Amino acid sequence: MNYEQIFDQAIERLHSEGRYRVFIDILRNKGAYPNARCFAGHNGPKPITVWCSNDYLAMGQHPKVIAAMEEALHDVGAGSGGTRNIGGNTHYHVQLESELADLHGKDGALLFTSGYVSNDATLSTLAKILPGCIIFSDELNHASMIAGIRNSGAEKKVFRHNDVEHLEQLLAETDPAVPKLIAFESVYSMDGDVAPIHAICDLADKYNALTYIDEVHAVGMYGPRGGGISEREDAASRITIIEGTLGKAFGVMGGYIAADTRIIDVIRSYAPGFIFTTSLSPVLVAGVLASVRHLKSSSAEREGQQEAAASLKQMFRDAGLPVMDSTTHIVPLMVGDPVRTKKIADILLAEYGVYVQPINYPTVPRGTERLRFTPGPAHTADMRRELTSALIEIWQRMELDLRKAA
Ligand SMILES: Cc1ncc(COP(=O)(O)O)c(C=O)c1O
Question: Which residues, 6+ apart, have CB-to-CB distance to 92 below 8 Å?
Answer without folding.
Answer: 72, 282, 285, 286, 289
